[in-house]
Design brief:
Blueprint: E1 3-6, E2 11-17, E3 23-27, H1 38-43, E4 49-53, H2 70-84, E5 89-94, H3 96-107, E6 112-118, H4 127-140, H5 142-149, H6 156-161, H7 163-174, H8 178-190, E7 204-209, H9 217-227, E8 230-234, H10 241-244, H11 246-259
Parallel strand pairs: 3-4, 3-5, 5-6, 6-7, 7-8
Antiparallel strand pairs: 1-2, 2-4
Helix pairs in contact: 2-3, 4-5, 4-8, 5-7
Length: 264
């Protein structure tokens, strides 16, 4: 069932499921929403409490006028956790969701029990690349630009064997509120956590699709080294292994939680 939290400055759409400890918070990627985690959450078999929400500007959450910053996004997460009475959580973020998780851990380290960072980095892209994408969207429209963007979300095999799903995820991307997409592009353009990476000392696991061209394994390897974390590659997947191989992603998360003593 859809739930909504009014955080004074905006309303966020979320789902809170399950019981027990720890609480896992899943953060979506640019141009997607909380549904990209459906398969991963199902694979966890209700072993812990799970919070998913649509980032500002995405899904059913509000899309305020941009530009946004990483601090805007991490402050949204802090406000949502406070509203729901969640003191500490394991953060699971993919792409920009991973950057938001990192920024949250930088600002509120006592509230981040651990991090699972998927297909992300301390810095994604460049000022030039994000400005080019934003200009293309303003000139051509998001549905047109989305045709190029989604080609980096999944492997060629996914587009061949799972055509209906690929079409559905194109719809999700192309129907993202333009203000929200552009606002979060600005957050990625301006967000650089490399100077703070050495100070983020939380238990962490880094995952990456081995075929990811948007945030390639080399970027994840640098992130893992900076955090002193382990890197696990997800075979035959691209930028969204949570969609292409949810059971394997869930298995890595369960193993990580077991290492931390949270699950048996």
């Amino acid at each position: 069932m859809a739930s909504f939290a009014n955080l004074d400055h905006l309303t966020l759409h979320y789902r809170l499921e399950g019981e027990g400890s720890p609480t896992l918070v899943f953060l979506n990627s640019l141009g997607s929403d909380l549904r990209i985690w459906d398969g991963v959450v199902a694979s966890l078999e209700g072993r812990c409490r799970v919070l998913r929400y649509d980032l500002r500007g995405h899904g059913l959450s509000d899309a305020p006028v941009g530009p946004y910053t990483l601090e805007d996004h991490s402050s949204d997460l802090a406000a949502l956790l406070e509203r729901l009475g969640i003191d500490r959580a394991v953060l699971v973020g993919i792409s920009v969701g991973g950057l938001i998780a990192l920024d949250f851990a930088r600002r509120w380290p006592e509230r981040a029990e651990a991090l699972v960072l998927c297909d992300t980095g301390a810095r994604i892209g460049s000022e030039e690349s994000w400005n080019e994408r934003m200009a293309a969207i303003r000139q051509q429209g998001l549905p047109e630009v989305a045709r190029t963007v989604i080609a980096r979300w999944f492997s060629e095999d996914f587009f061949t064997r799972r055509k209906a799903e690929a079409a559905g995820y194109y719809n999700m991307l192309s129907r993202t509120p333009v203000e929200g997409y552009l606002g979060t592009c600005a957050a990625l353009r301006d967000g650089d956590l490399r100077p703070w990476l050495g100070g983020i000392r939380r238990p962490a696991l880094v995952l990456c699709g081995e075929l990811d061209k948007a945030t390639p394994p080399e970027l994840s390897r640098e992130l893992a080294q900076g955090l002193g974390a382990r890197l696990e590659l997800i075979p035959q997947t691209a930028h969204l292994p949570c969609v292409e191989a949810p059971a394997l992603v869930g298995q890595h998360i369960r193993s990580f939680l077991k290492e931390l003593g949270y699950v048996r």
